[in-house]
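$ run holo --ligand "zinc ion" --emit tokens
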Amino acid sequence: MRNQFGEDINPKPETPINAAKCLDCGTVLVSRYRHDFQTCRCGKLSVDGGSDYVRRAYDEDSHVLEIRTPDELVAALAAREEKP
Ligand SMILES: [Zn+2]
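-- output --
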């Protein structure tokens, strides 16, 4: 499984998923390790912390879908080109 940047983001079952989707631009962000700071295309959402901690940064008016499980990640990636 790869994200929009072509990076391998295969989740390990034993590792909690630190991911979220920006519903404003459709970008799926996955923070895979500590200090893996990812920002979406429109710049409204950032995720950080990998499996060590969960950190989010987003504007008050942005729309964010939290992703906790591999199934949710697959669904979010499959739907990423849809307009919100
Ligand atoms: Zn965005």
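-- notes --
Strands lie at 19-22, 28-30, 38-39, 45-48, 55-58, 64-67.
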